[in-house]
Amino acid sequence: MNICVFCSSSDAVSKKYFDSAKKLGVEMVKAGFNLVYGGAKRGLMGAVADSVKSAGGGVIGVIPKALKKYGIAMEGLDKLIVTDNMRERKSVMERKSDAFIFLPGGVGTLEEAMEILTLKQLHYHNKPLVFVNTANYYSTLFKFFEKMEKEKFIKKELCNMFHVAKNGRAAVRYIKRYKPSKFKDKWF
Which pLDDT score, from 0 to 100, does residue 183 have? Predict the structure, then answer.
């Protein structure tokens, strides 16, 4: 099975986020999972890929050619898929993955998380989604979901479509035990 991990490509973030990414990679390999990710050698992306490779797991990177030209693609992956653009990248990552984990990241990670969550909400897939809430990074997002629900922009059920884990071990454990649920339509 493949877990897609979306996360930051920033090298400037705190060490606690790098530590979390590295631990996630080890936990994935222990549980028999391979990694699908954005193909970069930088930031948390590089940390989780290095960790999976070092622990003996398989790694598939997916990177758009516009980003590859900057020299940020990681070498030595089991497979590096180069796409024409970001939309194709996300589509390939979604198809090749059996589950999704969102580590802390910037607007790109947030956009990817919202797309994968939207696809689940619209019944395009029923794969497990897990936010690793390192240092309460995503807590404000979850409060915003509560506001959206209160204002009737989303149903409360949306928050049942993903899991929040405090660390990589808990995220992997959730994915191993995941049982798909049936969700109602998103419309009121």
Answer: 79
Q: Give me the pLDDT at residue 185, please.
A: 78
Beta bridge partners of 134: none
Q: 85: helix, coil or strand? A: coil
The continuous run of DSSP H or E covering 6 comes out as strand 2-6
Buried b or exposed e, range 51-78, using 16+ CB within 10 angstroms = bbbeeebebbbbbbeebbeeebbbeebe
| Mean of pLDDT values over 46-67 | 98
Please give the full DSSP string across 8-68, using - where no structure is assigned. ---SSS-HHHHHHHHHHHHHHHHTT-EEEE--BSSHHHHHHHHHHHHTT--EEEEEEHHHH
Q: How many CB atoms lie within 10 A of CB 95?
A: 10
Question: If pLDDT is split at 50, 70 and 90, which confidence band does 181 have?
Answer: confident
Domain spans of the chain? 2-176
Residues 130 and 30: their CA atoms lie apart, in Å, by 18
Question: What kind of architecture, by CATH, is found in domain 2-176?
Answer: 3-Layer(aba) Sandwich (3.40)
Nearest of 175, 155, 166 to residue 31 by alpha carbon: 175
- Judged by phi (left if over 0) then psi (alpha if -120 to 50, else beta), residue 29 lies in alpha
